[in-house]
TrEMBL record:
Residues 130-222 form the Acyl-CoA oxidase/dehydrogenase middle domain. Residues 236-385 form the Acyl-CoA dehydrogenase/oxidase C-terminal domain. Belongs to the acyl-CoA dehydrogenase family. InterPro entries: Acyl-CoA_Oxase/DH_mid-dom (IPR006091), Acyl-CoA_Oxase/DH_mid-dom_sf (IPR046373), AcylCo_DH-like_C (IPR036250), AcylCo_DH/oxidase_C (IPR009075), AcylCoA_DH/ox_N (IPR013786), AcylCoA_DH/ox_N_sf (IPR037069), AcylCoA_DH/oxidase_NM_dom_sf (IPR009100), Mycobact_Acyl-CoA_DH (IPR052161). This is Acyl-CoA dehydrogenase family protein. It comes from the Bacteria. The lineage of its organism: Bacteria, Bacillati, Actinomycetota, Actinomycetes, Streptosporangiales. Signal peptide: none annotated. Pfam families: Acyl-CoA_dh_1, Acyl-CoA_dh_M, Acyl-CoA_dh_N. Transmembrane segments: none annotated.
Length: 393
């Protein structure tokens, strides 16, 4: 990406790098490297304060249009920002879901009133969001959603259950895909509602993961309410809006994510050298293939950024999700094979994991959350390649 940068892009990169170097010091020096998948419990309040510090300096929502509180950064500059953020070892973002999923969705499909109400608190990191998609019987097959919403006076009343809801305990709002047309099936009759989390009728139960942490949750809606105006798009048009949100999720931030992947790969390579595992020709071959896979992933991601630049990404974004989810899971497996028998032993009582064990355990989920590999292959086959739809019973 840097080979094609303009002078303005290089100046922007220098500005971002200088700001991060200056401000990831003093009060925030200890925030470097905190958080991330499997570690969202780490120093949450510190990371929230850091992100509000960023907001005060105008470094949140950099890719949003200026009229909505962003910097209006070009696609290339958004990539630069995410890369520099990752390279600086800055803490994992707490406002990611609002900034990168809900915000772009409201900008693209919301009303003027919704933009005025919901976008400024995301920019300022005053309100945090979570995603209400998956259900116990509708995870990979999201079209099977059964959570219901019924009109009730000047609002909607929501009843049902969501699961694997990241950061639900810390969130103020949730965008919820629910069925608003009784008797409807599959993709029809769904709506995309914005629901306040801090109210009677919302119960959150943390799920303890194999990593020992609980950033995922179950959320129960028992007559929870939201205003009639809190529907993004038209009632019944929720599937289209929900798919656009998933496309935004697989956008520019994934290139910053890949900087983290590169650091993990470099760490595994160094571990293999230190333990002598690099002398094993089979493991050495897998390390080379992992490096090649990361390069291919980056090239594919930059190629598909055109969908982001054009507005709502298309189904081609499923390719990126399929590629990085599989690659990262395999990296976790490779790390454990490099560790050998030592990888089977916890580092301390009662369940103290090292970074490689945590990587292995959490990356098992990479091929499932945000759309499983099987579903991504169906989307690519049917909506990108135009192949016949899968036969359903």
């Amino acid at each position: 990406m840097q080979r094609n940068e303009t002078p303005a892009d290089r100046a922007f990169r220098a500005e971002v790098r200088a700001w991060l170097e200056t401000h990831l010091s003093g009060d925030y020096a200890h925030a470097r490297g905190l958080g991330g998948p499997g570690r969202e419990h780490e120093a949450f309040e510190t990371r929230l304060a850091w992100e509000r510090h960023m907001a005060a300096a105008g470094w949140t929502c950099v890719g949003w249009p200026k009229e909505h509180g962003g910097r209006g950064a070009s696609l290339r500059q958004q990539v630069i920002f995410n890369e520099e953020y990752a390279l600086a070892g800055a803490p994992a973002r707490v406002g990611h879901i609002g900034e990168n999923l809900l915000g772009p969705t409201v900008i693209a499909f919301g009303t003027d009133e919704q933009r005025e109400r919901f976008l400024p608190p995301i920019v300022a990191v005053r309100e945090l969001w979570c995603q209400g998609y998956s259900e116990p019987g509708a995870g990979s097959d999201l079209a099977g959603v059964q959570t219901r919403a019924e009109r009730d006076g000047d609002g909607w009343r929501i009843t049902g259950q969501k699961v694997w809801t990241s950061l639900a305990l810390e969130s103020d709002w949730c965008f919820v895909l629910c069925r608003t047309e009784p008797g409807s099936e599959r993709h029809r009759g769904l709506s995309y509602l914005l629901v306040p989390m801090r109210q009677d009728g919302v119960e959150i139960r943390p799920i303890v993961q194999p990593t020992g942490t609980s950033e995922f949750n179950e959320v129960f809606f028992d007559g929870a309410r939201t205003d009639a105006s809190c529907v993004v798009g038209e009632p019944g048009d929720g599937w289209r809006i929900a798919m656009a949100t998933l496309g935004f999720e697989r956008g520019v931030a994934t290139l910053g994510q890949q900087v983290g992947f590169r650091r993990e790969l470099e760490g595994v390579i160094e571990l293999a050298r230190r333990t002598g595992a690099a002398a094993d020709p089979l493991l050495r071959d897998r390390l080379v293939r992992a490096w090649m896979g990361l390069e291919i992933m980056r090239l594919n991601a930059t190629r598909t950024m055109a969908g982001v630049a054009a507005g709502a990404p298309g189904p081609e974004s499923s390719i990126s999700k399929l590629v990085w989810g599989t690659w990262h899971r395999e990296l976790g497996e490779l790390a454990m094979d490099v560790l050998g028998a030592a990888g089977l032993v916890a580092q301390g009582e009662p369940y103290d994991l090292d970074d490689w064990q945590r990587l292995f355990l959490f990356s098992r989920a990479d091929t499932i959350y945000a759309g499983s590999n099987e579903i991504q292959r169906n989307i690519i086959a049917e909506r990108v390649l135009g192949l016949p739809r899968e036969t359903r019973p």
